[in-house]
Specification:
heterodimer; A: about 350 residues; alpha/beta; D-Maltodextrin-Binding Protein, domain 2; 2 domains; five-stranded mixed sheet; three-stranded parallel sheet; 15 helices; about 15% strand; B: about 450 residues; mainly alpha; MetI-like fold
Chain lengths: ~350, ~450
């Protein structure tokens, strides 16, 4: 497609009509072009960022890699389109990308009015606070009278105002356009508190001149469920994205990892056998081969592996599972069973 | 009464004194300093002069202090406290659990961040194995540009054809990989265009009876057809180079692609628009004016954004129009609107006598324009043209809002790499980018000064 379209710019608008293919189901389209076009962020530590070799990694990237593993049995068959927050929905609506996996918050407006569908939640985020340890503050409720650093014109700013008013505390906002400016101002002591989404706090805190002088407070003052998004009206594709995520969660729950998935093929547990495609035809029902889930786990890993690799305690970000732990371990990540 | 001669022998020397060096205050650094620096601050003869001298002393000291402060800060940041080696961000991040940089030390520039990413800053996400194609493009392009810019190099016409016609095609094939699928309708479109041209020529010949029109016009059409089909064929020919999507282009290479395309397209288009706006024909004048005012009246960021967000909504689902080409078209059209006004400014400065003189000599409109007025006008507005070029070169960085990673955009992306999060990376990156941008813009500015001096024929003071 890209190749044909380069030609348009080089001469004529006529070939445009030729390039307008009949728009079939996204899955058929993806299968015929041989890769998934995945919309990601222009860079968000741990979620989607490119390394020095230009390889994309991150929790959001793993969603697309898992889909490629499920469809093609090859997690590398993904092409990434980095999108700014402003153009992300148009890119999806216009069909430029097949799936948007770009730390996008699931809200009512986006789910309904924009003609989009959220296929699940791969990270439960929420707005948090960071303060200096020297303040001796242990709860956000002790922040009365504080100067708060935040980004301009975001919901973060509004959430803070709501929270402080609701708790009858005074505060002063020090707002900047870019995250790097906000961190800089907080680092130089222009404000007492730095607030943004918690996952962001963990990343930005590494840009502080002394990481260990700061703590992230336990309170979360907003709900930010982040997940992959698809166009409305293509249920097959929607199911595929949803069940890719569910497969990663189910694998974690059943203890299937990329290391032991081959042994699991010989398991006696019927739930595991259904999962790896030895029993039933769950893959075929999705329009895929029956070893789809096996391929996801073999090549990308289960949800826990993806989390630990990209944002978990062993990475520079060091984010604990928290809400994103399985339902059986005190979190709210819950996947319907494969049966 | 003694005469001079009588006394002379007592003290007049018979041999010449050797030449002495001029007084220390009249040569070298000291004289320069006295003439240019201290003369303004040593005059205390009147109250007014004394006040101005004191003011000069204070200002001089303030400027010296400011320079000194900048130098000290840069030295401390870029050299003294800088970190020179490391394999990830933890080397530039004070954390006591890692122990690579002790807590509490001042951290300067994180140079390993730059060295680790230099290939990406230069070439974006272009696959490493294919980067030789970018370098080859530079190697082909640089002598062509240099040859065109240096007056002493002969064969300017051939050079221009190579640079403006052949080089873009070679560069497109090298950078994208060639083998571009050209839809059958494109070939048909051009075939129809040329057929219509021939038919029109034939029709005119039949109607007017102008003999040989079909022959001479037909030759031109045939040559154009051969050129176009050769270009289409070259682009569609598979040279066996792997295809690299434009979404992988980035860094300095993307900035140069956008900047140079804008520069090369905007000057001729700007000249045409400027002439159009001054034209006697109402339709041409109106069209040019509307074009210029619409493009100048909208911020570049808005147009880029429209091209990226609105345009796809007009197409059928599944049709995407390469993002880079959208950006190239927008940048080229945008800068030609500005260029048109610069050139128009130059044309307005040409005295009426020049037009009247050339009309009196019986020159046609085109002869007047290209032999008399345009050369003078362009010479006058060299600073304006280069100003627009430099502005355009720096404006290219706005494409980062539509998800293209230009030179500055790639830095933003690198700053978000989980393994390279560190406090001073941003400042280090900005310092590096600023130096590179400055080198490019300053060279353009110096070349413009050189050309002005070369072409100045007496208007300059």
């Amino acid at each position: 497609m890209k190749k044909t379209l380069l030609a348009i710019g080089l001469g004529t608008a006529v070939s445009m009509a030729a390039a307008t293919a009949a728009y079939a189901g996204t899955l058929d389209d993806v299968k015929s072009k041989g890769h998934i076009q995945c919309g990601v962020s222009q860079g968000l530590p741990g979620f989607s960022n490119a390394d020095a070799q230009g390889n994309w990694t991150g929790l959001d990237v793993d969603v697309c890699r898992a889909m490629a593993a499920a469809i093609f049995g090859d997690a590398t068959k993904v092409k990434y389109t980095p999108l700014s927050s402003k153009e992300r929905f148009t890119a999806l609506q216009s069909g430029e990308i097949d799936v948007l996996s770009r730390n996008t918050t699931w809200t009512a407006t986006r789910d309904t009015a924009l003609g989009l569908n959220f296929a699940g939640v791969n990270y439960y985020d929420g707005q948090g606070f960071m303060v200096r340890k020297s303040l001796g503050v242990t709860s956000a409720l002790q922040l009365g009278g504080a100067a708060v650093c935040t980004n301009t014109g975001t919901t973060t700013e509004l959430n803070v105002a709501d929270y402080f008013r609701a708790n009858n505390m005074k505060f002063e906002v020090v707002a900047f356009e870019k995250s790097d400016e906000v961190v800089g101002a907080y680092d130089k002591g222009r404000c007492d508190v730095y607030t943004t989404d918690q996952s962001g706090l963990f990343a930005q805190r590494l840009k502080l001149s002394n990481v260990n002088d700061h703590i992230v407070l336990p309170e979360i003052i907003s709900k930010e469920p982040l997940g992959p998004v698809v166009r409305q009206g293509d249920d097959q594709w929607f199911n595929l994205v949803r069940w890719t995520h569910n497969a990663m969660l189910n694998a974690e729950e059943m203890g299937i990892t990329s290391a032991n998935v081959d042994e699991m093929l010989k398991s006696k547990n019927p739930a595991v056998l259904r999962f790896v495609g030895k029993e039933g035809s769950f893959g075929e029902n999705l329009g895929l081969k029956n070893d789809w889930a096996y391929n996801i786990i073999k090549q990308v890993g289960n949800y826990s592996e993806s989390f630990e690799r990209n944002v978990g305690p062993k990475t520079p970000l060091g984010i604990a599972r928290g809400l994103n732990a399985l339902w059986s371990k005190g979190g709210i990540q819950y996947a319907p069973p494969i049966r | 009464m003694a005469t001079i001669k009588d006394h002379a022998r007592h003290y007049v020397r018979t041999e010449m004194l050797p030449e002495q060096a001029p007084p220390a205050g009249e040569v070298g650094m000291r004289k320069w300093l006295w003439d240019n620096v201290f003369s303004s601050m040593t005059n205390f003869s009147t109250i007014g002069a004394a006040i101005s001298s004191i003011l000069m002393i204070v200002l001089t000291l303030a400027v010296i202090a400011l320079f000194w402060w900048v130098i000290v800060v840069l030295y401390k940041f870029g050299w003294q406290d800088a970190i020179w080696s490391g394999t990830d961000g933890s080397f530039c991040r004070p954390e006591d659990n890692k122990g690579k940089v002790p807590i509490g030390t001042d951290i300067g520039a994180c140079w390993p961040f730059i060295t680790n990413r230099i290939g990406q800053f230069m070439n974006g996400f272009y696959p490493e194995a294919e980067r030789w194609r970018i370098y080859l493009t530079y190697i082909i392009g640089a002598p062509l540009i240099a040859g065109l810019l240096m007056p002493s190099v002969p064969r300017k016409g051939l050079n221009a054809i190579l640079l403006f016609v052949a080089f873009p095609i070679v560069a497109t094939i090298l950078l994208s990989g060639g083998g571009i699928e050209i839809a059958g309708s494109t070939w048909i479109f051009w075939a129809v265009v040329f057929a219509i041209c021939l038919a029109v020529l034939f029709g005119i010949q039949m109607a007017t009876g102008a003999k040989g029109l079909l022959m001479s016009g037909g030759k031109v059409v045939l040559m154009a057809a051969i050129a176009i089909f050769a270009i289409l064929f070259a682009l569609s020919f598979d040279f066996g180079l792997p295809f690299v999507e434009t979404s992988k282009w980035g860094g300095l290479m993307l900035t140069l692609v956008i900047g140079l395309t804008g520069i090369v397209v905007s000057l001729p288009l700007g000249i045409v628009l400027a002439l159009g706006r001054r034209s006697q024909m109402p339709a041409v004048r109106l069209a040019s004016t509307i074009f210029i005012e619409v493009w100048r009246g909208v911020p570049l960021i808005t147009v880029l954004f429209m091209s990226s967000v609105m345009l796809p909504l007009f197409f059928a689902e599944g049709v995407s129009f390469d993002k880079l080409i959208r950006a190239l078209i927008v940048v080229a059209l945008f800068s030609s609107a500005y260029m048109a006004e610069v050139v128009r400014g130059g044309l307005q400065a040409i005295p009426k006598g020049q037009y009247e003189g050339s009309q009196a000599l019986g020159l046609s409109y085109w002869q007047t324009t290209f032999l008399i007025t345009m050369p003078q006008a362009l010479k006058l507005v060299i600073p304006g043209i280069v100003n627009t070029f430099i502005g355009l070169f720096k404006d290219t960085t706005l494409v980062s809002i539509i998800g293209l990673y230009d030179f500055l955009g790639i830095l933003d992306s690198a700053l978000q790499d989980t393994n390279w999060l560190a406090p001073t990376n941003q400042m280090t990156g900005f310092l590096f980018m600023a130096v590179v941008y400055w080198v490019f813009c300053f060279s353009m500015s110096r070349y413009s000064m050189y050309t002005e001096n070369r072409l100045h024929t007496g208007h300059k003071r």
